[in-house]
Amino acid sequence: MSTLEALTKAQAWLAPWASGATNPQPNRLDLVIQSQDLFQAVRKLKDEQWGYLSAITGLDLGTHIDALEALYQFCSGSAVVTLRVPLPRSGGVVPSVHTLIPVADFFEREIMEMFGITVTGIENDMHLFLPDDWPDGVYPLLKDFDPQAARPVETNLEPPGGGMKGNRFIVPIGPQHPALKEPGHFEFTVEGEIVVHASMRLGYAHRGLEKAVEQRNWAQNLYLLERVCGICSHTHALAYSLGVEALAGVEAPPRAQAIRELVAGLERLHSHLLWLGVGAHEAGFDTLFMYSWRDRETVMDLLEQLTGNRVNYSANVLGGVKCDISYAQADAIRSGVDFLEERIRHYLDVVTTDSMFLQRTRGIGTMTLQQAEYLGALGPTARASGVLRDVRVEAPYGSYRQYPVSLVMDTAGDLEARFKVRLKELLISCNGIRAILDNLPESELTARVPRRIPAGEVVSRVEAPRGEVFYFIKSNGTDIPERIKVRTPSLCNWTSVLNQAIGRQLADIPLLIAGMDPCFSCNDRMVLVAQKNKKKQPEIWNWDQLRQYGIDFYNLRRTNR
């Protein structure tokens, strides 16, 4: 089905509830839906199996308008349908749709605590990102948010802990735990060794990036947003750059687009090899862990040769890239990719033949095609269950039109399938990198992007190693963005992990979590609270104060050398 056909069908199905329609992008349809009609409209899209809910975005239209919007953004191939729900800035109410789409639970809880929108019928109204001592009635993503009002308040909530409930025992894990590489809190209720209920809490590393971007210009935000995730820094910079360039009516030159795809391929190699080591470690296979991380160093060395950085590569600029590829660098990349391909084929053989490893992966955490679609899984986690979902293939962007990639899938849906899909994706990435190097076009590296971006909205989607990264970018015509929404794939995939945990042995949980390749930092994107003097009340720093602190800190280090 073409994009136009998909949008036409969606518009016809939703016509009974839509009070207005626009096409802000060629591949996008926006429909105004009143709050009382939202559930019916979402159910219609669900019944017709039109795409998946990619994000729910809160939007403050400003104190002068005294209005909010909740944007329910659905994707199908390259088509995007947005249900725009108008709401008052205070007292806005929407019905929960998590009974139709389970992943909506996390999205709904986010707009509740960030915008003060009431969601009726929600299963869990506890904080997801903000701390428990965050004051009531203070919503950080509203335009009139006052950091001084965000001082911690007294709370009677008990710290997370376990305990007995009849024949059931609650096992708490995190947020500080030797088995966790990043901070998150899980509670698993078990009967004997079998998990009967699972829940989690995020936000322990929340950095408020969506608020911070509203105080920086378009160029500065590129530096900030590529730090959403250290492993997927290029992906986030690319999603942001493509969105801003679309708003500006600018297209990066062909050579820049090719280099962007090449760096994305190297980033995928790095990410999947890192994940392979973590997964092997959780399975007790530390030899595989050490070998895969040794080979990961090869990728990081190549990225350093190309961009100057092993992490946060900073290859992108608005309008293109800042680094070219020399003949010597191209030869080094080819040699590195040849070496890695040999190693990856060996690892693929190991994970599909080693009897000990297969005992921990084959038939464990199985998720069917229907379950994966229902739970909103993304990336290799979804493709291991047979879901045809990859933005590079469904909605090609940049040079993926000139250098297409093959879709890697499996149908078993278990942990073994997730290992196989990711390792086969690495082989595809190796071939893609060679194709780019052999056919690198000649052109400039950048196109000029204006300092002030024309007013408008854009949805930008990029396939990260873990799945679809979703950006919603709104410009008001100035040099500072009005709103940037970031939805990472981990936020969607957590729902599938919690579902898979039910009925499994507690000992399988660490590997189930590792199997989706979670990233906590990319979920946790409030305000910095610094206590200069323990006898004084905490002091809330604004961004200018924080910047000055950084300048003074490094000046002091330089002086003391």
Task: List its traits.
single chain; 561 residues; alpha+beta; Beta Polymerase, domain 2; Cytochrome-c3 Hydrogenase, chain B; 3 domains; 5-stranded mixed sheet; 4-stranded antiparallel sheet; 18 strands; 40% helix
Q: State the shape.
A: globular
Class of secondary structure makeup: alpha+beta
Q: How many whole angstroms does the radius of gyration measure? A: 23 Å
The tally of strands reads 18
At the fold tier of CATH, the topology name of the largest domain is Cytochrome-c3 Hydrogenase, chain B
Report the CATH C-level class of the largest domain.
Mainly Alpha
Low-confidence stretches: 525-538
Total of helices? 17
The N- and C-terminal alpha carbons lie at a distance of: 64 Å
- Gross CATH architecture of the largest domain: Orthogonal Bundle
In helices, the fraction of residues equals 40-55%
Strand order of the largest sheet: 1-2-5-4-3
- What would CATH call the homologous superfamily of the largest domain? Cytochrome-c3 Hydrogenase, chain B
What percent of residues are in strands?
A: 15-25%
Q: How many distinct domains?
A: 3
Largest sheet: 5 strands, mixed
Average pLDDT figure: 89
Structure summary:
With 561 residues, the protein is an alpha+beta fold.
Helix and strand layout, with pairings?
Layout: H1 3-14, E1 18-22, E2 28-33, H2 38-47, E3 52-60, E4 67-76, E5 79-88, E6 93-95, H3 104-115, E7 118-120, E8 163-165, E9 168-173, E10 185-191, E11 194-201, H4 209-212, H5 218-225, H6 233-248, H7 254-282, H8 286-307, E12 316-317, E13 320-321, H9 327-353, H10 355-361, H11 369-375, H12 379-383, H13 391-394, H14 415-438, E14 456-464, E15 467-475, E16 483-487, H15 489-501, H16 509-515, E17 529-530, E18 539-540, H17 543-560
Parallel strand pairs: 2-5, 6-7
Antiparallel strand pairs: 1-2, 3-4, 4-5, 8-9, 9-10, 10-11, 12-13, 14-15, 15-16, 17-18
